[in-house]
Structures are given as C-alpha cells and as structure tokens.
Amino acid sequence: MVKSTTKDAQDLFHSLRSTYVATPTNLKIIDLYVCFAVFTALIQVAYMALVGSFPFNSFLSGVLSCIGTAVLAVCLRIQVNKENKEFKDLAPERAFADFVLCNLVLHLVIINFLG
C-alpha cells in the first residue's frame, strides 16, 4: 500500500514537472511573482506571531496588499494564457493594463486603510 502511494505521488510529480516545462516563460514569471507575494505575506504573518501585532492596521495592510496582489496576478495569468479559450479575444496588453489599474486601486485602498 505504501509503495503504491509513493509511486503514485512520484508519477504525479513527474507528470506535473513535464507539463510545467512546456509552460511559456511569461506565465512562469507570473507564477514566480505570485509565489513571491504569498511568501512575503507568510513572512509578515510569522513576524506578527513572533513579535506581536501592535500596529495591527499596518499588519493587515501588508498582508492584504500581498494577498490582493497575488490574486490579481493569478487573474492576469488566466487572461494571458493562450490555452484559455475564454479570453482569446483579449489582448495581453489590455490584460496587463487591467492588472496595473487594479493594483493601483488596491494600493490606494491599502494606503487609505493605514490612516
């Protein structure tokens, strides 16, 4: 039972790795950006857990900024992906402009929340 589970997990990772190799570079860059944003949010949560949450507005603003940016980047990835037929008529430049505009609005709200 354990051997079959291990083999299934190895087959799954091998399948994911071989599929991800064929992913275009621009999507890999967006994936890296999403991982960076989520990792930054996790560092902020760990820092808050260790040190404390005295300026709680600052903590919430930082974490929500990272998570919001990651969500917007995932939306950009979905729109830019050539295999996604739902957004085939949307130009990548338009998708990036939407991403930048939404990030601007997000960060204006975050700055306003800081006080």
From TrEMBL:
Recorded topology in the membrane: Multi-pass membrane protein
Keyword presence, Cytoplasm: no
One matching Pfam family: DAD
Pathway terms, separated by semicolons: Protein modification; protein glycosylation
PANTHER family given in the database record: DOLICHYL-DIPHOSPHOOLIGOSACCHARIDE--PROTEIN GLYCOSYLTRANSFERASE SUBUNIT DAD1
Record's subunit section: Component of the oligosaccharyltransferase (OST) complex.
Protein name in the entry: Dolichyl-diphosphooligosaccharide--protein glycosyltransferase subunit DAD1
Organism the protein comes from: Camelina sativa (False flax)
Lineage: Eukaryota, Viridiplantae, Streptophyta, Embryophyta, Tracheophyta
Name of encoding gene: LOC104792310
